[in-house]
Batch of 2 targets.
Target 1
Amino acid sequence: MTTGPEHPARPAVVLLSGGMDSAVAAAIARDAGFSVHALSFRYGQRHAIELAAAARVARALALAQHLIVDVDLAAFGGSALTDAIAVPQDRSADEIGHGVPPTYVPARNTVFLSLALAWSEVLGARDIFIGANAIDYSGYPDCRPEYLAAFERLAQLATVAGAERGERFVIHAPLLRMSKREIVECGTAHGVDFALTRTCYAPDPSGAACGRCDACLLRLRGFAEAGLADPVAYRR
Amino acid sequence: MTTGPEHPARPAVVLLSGGMDSAVAAAIARDAGFSVHALSFRYGQRHAIELAAAARVARALALAQHLIVDVDLAAFGGSALTDAIAVPQDRSADEIGHGVPPTYVPARNTVFLSLALAWSEVLGARDIFIGANAIDYSGYPDCRPEYLAAFERLAQLATVAGAERGERFVIHAPLLRMSKREIVECGTAHGVDFALTRTCYAPDPSGAACGRCDACLLRLRGFAEAGLADPVAYRR
């Protein structure tokens, strides 16, 4: 894709959490020639340290823009990520892969994609990238291909661009069928500096990862399987 | 529907803006026997006076709960309701009924319904009420029946309740095909005190309605056609 002045890059909105998956999704979008407008949320998460990581990732990837928007999901409660519910630790790969964990935030991807859609309509973007992954997060209903396809259909009907002008929104989930190992390898190939990312659901005040929550365990397994060392600090 | 202790009322989430349409939707939900959890948003609207109106309506209808949640749609810009774009005045009924007005907030109903869905999942509610109206707001793509049906399908796939347990979410839009006159009459029949509601897109600091924006003009026409006086104060 040409991105010279005669062919300015098309804008895309990329959901950027500060974790490794969305960093890889952002790098893929950038390397596909999009002008990347990264979107993060201050949603009442206990691990707000991820917002600083998102800003670092956006700078390192030289993204066009990074916006942090407030949306108070904690007002509803019901999740270990926003509420006084314990984050599970030391679960086996089988436990992590099955059932809905308490770290599920009700309808989170629907809320985040809706906000990405709102910004896309203002920017004139038709492409939204999300780092959703159906393999490692099979317990999250809103990481499944049929869910993302339904959101694409909704976007068509929800917007002036789609409903009035017949333009199509595309929800890109380039990591959807990748293993964590493949995500590590893909990110490395796209120049992602994983040292900047933060994955842990329950980091300590210094920012060190716990190494025991589902997110840490999946991340560590991915690096191990890729034969690489995870560059972030762990408490143990 | 029985609402005694042996048959506690089923919860429903109702989007409550402080305007007349959502007040009528809330009264319909309550009178259908639901325990109504009303949801309003501080989204950066210029007419934030509507939040005080929503609180008054929730109290007057003796709703089970009223929650105001922050979601910063103004961060995206692009609408006369959140931005420094002029609210149109003195448009004819034909102008109001056609095309997308500058007061359209991109993807607003998608964002609001997503947040209602998140709260529903936490509450164990399967019913969401929205005061969307397809007649007077034909310019808003996200007030159309096909849009609401698409959101219902998405809700099924987006949630643990829908995806794992096969439960159905229902988006109720009881005002969808009503004229403003019918909404006035229906609200009156359900005991809505319209004096508590606020509709104007551009009220003055005292809270008086402008009487000239699309929302005021539609409201005034509804009362006139119903042969009733609108009890709220107008600047002119």
Target 2
Amino acid sequence: MTVLTYSLTEVAQQTRQAAIHLAVASPQAKNQALEAVAQALEASSPDILAANLEDCQRAQASGLAPALYARLKLDAAKLEGAIAGVRSVAALPDPVGTVQLHRQLDTGLVLKRVSCPLGVLGVIFEARPDAVVQIAALAIKSGNGVLLKGGQEALQSCQALVKAIHKGLSQTDISANVVALLTSREETLALLNLDQEVNLIIPRGSNEFVRFVQENTRIPVLGHAEGICHLYVDQAADVAQAVEIAVDSKVQYPAACNAVETILVHAAIAPQFLPALIPALQAHQVEVRGDTATQTLVSVKPATEADWSTEYSDLIVAIKVVESLEAAISHINQYGSGHTDAIATTNVQTAELFMNQVDAAGVFHNCSTRFADGFRYGLGAEVGISTQRLPPRGPVGLEGLVTYKYQLQGQGHIVASYSGLKARTFTHQNL
Amino acid sequence: MTVLTYSLTEVAQQTRQAAIHLAVASPQAKNQALEAVAQALEASSPDILAANLEDCQRAQASGLAPALYARLKLDAAKLEGAIAGVRSVAALPDPVGTVQLHRQLDTGLVLKRVSCPLGVLGVIFEARPDAVVQIAALAIKSGNGVLLKGGQEALQSCQALVKAIHKGLSQTDISANVVALLTSREETLALLNLDQEVNLIIPRGSNEFVRFVQENTRIPVLGHAEGICHLYVDQAADVAQAVEIAVDSKVQYPAACNAVETILVHAAIAPQFLPALIPALQAHQVEVRGDTATQTLVSVKPATEADWSTEYSDLIVAIKVVESLEAAISHINQYGSGHTDAIATTNVQTAELFMNQVDAAGVFHNCSTRFADGFRYGLGAEVGISTQRLPPRGPVGLEGLVTYKYQLQGQGHIVASYSGLKARTFTHQNL
């Protein structure tokens, strides 16, 4: 790793320079590079696994938390999965060069809006070394350079992975400089300040970590700090179906950001719904907390104000009885994180109002919040899920890693011709 | 104006509440509201002009700079123009409710991506009171609430305009609370801190002002601090055509952000091109500054390093001789602001390389940089021009004021069905 002998800014500029050429590489050249990377990773597997073993031994000695240790550990199967991921990214449609708008402004004056790479991505992740492989593949496919900063505990693994990626790229037309690994802790903060060199930050890690990143950079951040998702069970809900949706939304993978945290229940259906729901949740060892109205109907722990703002990421759910659709929407817009919120109802008008007025990236009707996911949406790959309001919002595929530019092709056209006495008029005809 | 008796956060929350209902208003309801606003502005014209006269008198007494005074002054013709603008915004296609993606994920499980308003806009502008009218119309059309903060010098005018807008809205189904005017200077900074209530900041004013806003908020900003645009005259340029493009790019409206500031000339064509260009620019009273190589060919003032980073917004242009296309691209990517850069060449391959490798919102071939404009692009209305890399980029129409949400419609679908032994598979069929 010669990287350490350069300053971070120099590394970033070198990555940006390499990215300028990657930006105009053909889809074939990028896919060949991805295949070369996959093969180099396969060839270097023993070194990578050995490096990971060192990281794991160091982590065990220093008493790393079990959850982090599980993410740090890279066995042969996980590595094979990551390599398969590189090939599946290669198989995706190329996101660069898509003509989004094609318009004649006047005879011989033609405007195109064409998708193009962002430039350089900064990706900061905790523990998980396989993130290196996935992110590098997505960056190359989308024509972007990438600065990778992994957790200190994964240092050996990340270095071995990037070494293999560089080896793969060195046999192709794509410069190995498009992927750079940052290795010192100080570089995380420094990276967040590189607004001139880095165009998008992607943080991968805990909510606290993502929030830290969001609060410490002016570079756009693709990610979400929280996933406080709701299910509202309307008075016109199908009780059995609503119970199934509630259970799936909570227990199918409680650590996921799209798992439900709060279930809102219309007062008119609460006496039927809650006695059906509680045993179904308890059968999956879910701890249920309820507001006062819920407690009068079923035997559950009390929920406090803090529960409405808590992402449990665990087998815990809070229940609140509401008097109306409006009260449910208002609760969600106040306490939700704008991630995904669902309604269970047989009333189409009610569902429509809910989906229009709830301010979230995903608004669902009669299905589990767990469907909020790039793969389930058919986006091919998921770069991240964004809870910001401006696009890209929700699960983001490769299109989150590209932007566009306007290309205007003339034949000596000047603006003066379109003003004054004999002014030409624009035709504005889509082609 | 009862606004002053509330705190800014309360005003913003009230605007957000009103915006939730505006978000689901029909296109007809929004257009009727815009017509009512136009009529109320017409009816209140005498009051508005009288208020503006007061502002102008105060401004003259305090010695406001002539350029600001010109923007502050609102005469009958300017007001009529602004009112006509409201009706033309009403005539635009509705940006809300567009289905951007429609996909069956599985039988009975249908995903839609639908455009929807952002929520609440914060618009901060200097002097120009007619901005109130234009921005309020764009906000209503796009279904957004708006907090308006004008310069202190335009206070009476802005209050009279917003009073009329409120009067108009009060006769419609749209709440007058969707448009709020902030009046104290302290509120500008406070507005920039309202990340929970405001979803997009649009600054209108000088470069310094826009930069101040960008550096003092975490809310996304739609705007650009600088427009340092380039024209590169390639060795294969048509000299006469390149001269015309250069002159138009500089003199057609030198104060515009899309006017050219630096002309780069390939060394091989400089001896023919420069002697043709200089008199053509001088005929329009343009001050020409050149690097050493330029000075050896034509008699011009010397350009210094600072010239390459300067937006003159005036009849001044800097010229630099470059040795190659690569040198031109590299100069532009270093000194440009990513706004609009053009190439003059008869070589199609050279043009393509330039348009691919120059990192700007607009990359033009054989036409004036002055075409970079929402109206000329046929976007209907121009909300602003953005030089950020992420979309929206370049001239931004109404679509810059909307985002999207994913609506998923199921029939009791749960994610557990798609895992395990008898896992269902997604169909992912576009509808």
